[in-house]
# Entry
Amino acid sequence: MAHQHGHDHGVSADTEARPLAVALALILAFMAAEVVLGVVADSLALLSDAAHMLVDAAALGMSVWAARLARRPPGGWMTFGFRRAEILSAQANGVTLLLLGLVIVAEGAQRLFSPPSVHAPIVIATAVAGALVNVVALRQVARANRANLNVEGSYRHLLTDLYAFAATGVAGVVVWTTGFERADAIASLAVAGSMLAASWPLLRASGRVLLEAAPEGIDPGEVAAALGSNPGVTGVHDLHVWEISSGFPALSAHVLVEQSEDCHRIRRELEGILEERFAITHTTLQVDHARRELLSIRPLRSDRRDR
# Structure
């Protein structure tokens, strides 16, 4: 018999949209100022920071949209609601980090060979102000629940931007004190490196969800063994474990039990095992009695075939 258990879609990865919106407003305001200052100072490091903040703003905008969309209750043809919008947002964040990092690498390499004159004081002042804005924005995003992959994507964007401001500030000091103009391009390459490093975990984690792989930390073989070791269970088939959204694992399986066992009792026991050992509460278990005898096909007698 097929039964479902624990169909509560309000899992712990729910996200507060307001802190994300506050962080978005901060990033947009500072980004506009940084573009102007980057052009005035002719600093690639500042302009790369501004470009990164533009991506941050887009990432935060998607996060706010996805967080609000994911809170809609399931209904109609969206039987799980819009929870996976958060995963799509996280995937987009990872892709933009990757692509923008590659663009900055190309521009930074070019400026290593022909560095422009950089107005160091503007670079330093902007980097310090940007770092302060990013710290405030990071605190806001952290309040929105980093267990959610969508929020974690925005957090990684802002964290790499904080590293970028630190590198930009150091580059500005080096240019100001030594006249070494290539420090600006080197700083931009460091920024790009942090962006590329941050993109891979996001792409990997969101890709696992979209491909419906088993959630991190859950071994399907171990789950099957735990179910199969329960007294009365004779076999576990068609086991599927996947993740609907961040922190929302799901499982379905076909379980065979001995003829003398109570299917409903064993189903409840198995649901308890899944919740206690693997934190899986959204389950669909089809529990049937195992057949005592297998059907066999016997060949027809030759005299019957001749008739």
Observations:
- The chain has two domains: 10-210, 220-289.
- The radius of gyration is 28 Å.
